[in-house]
Design goal:
The protein contains three helices and eight strands. Bound molecules: cobalt (II) ion (CO).
Amino acid sequence: MLTYNLDHIALAVPDLDKAIAQYENLFGGTPLYRETIESQGVEEAMLAVGGSYIQLLQPLGADTPVGRFLERSGEGLHHIALAVTDIEKALEHLRDEGARLVDDTPRQGGRGSRIAFVHPHTFAGTLIELVELKT
Ligand code: CO
């Protein structure tokens, strides 16, 4: 039985320091961690919000997926991440159901997790990230 739990909502921002400071001033709380993920071309920070998280993504350069997103759409909602316990099984299920996958196989995410993206055309025009958290 596959289950999906909301793990985080990710926002693309041009200035991570500024976005973190704004969040701290407005809503309180400090980042749980901050990590550069070269393979994704981002520096990310994770802020705890109740039982879920807000992830802030700053591109490492203009010619990265998040850099192109900022250029195209400006800052704001980038993706919603759903936690799964078995990412291969979830990908197989989604593929069987005709989902358009950005990643056929999982890749490295933050906190030692494995992630895979599902194309926005698949569901409500929103990029969905599957995340299998490191246990
Ligand atoms: Co994410």
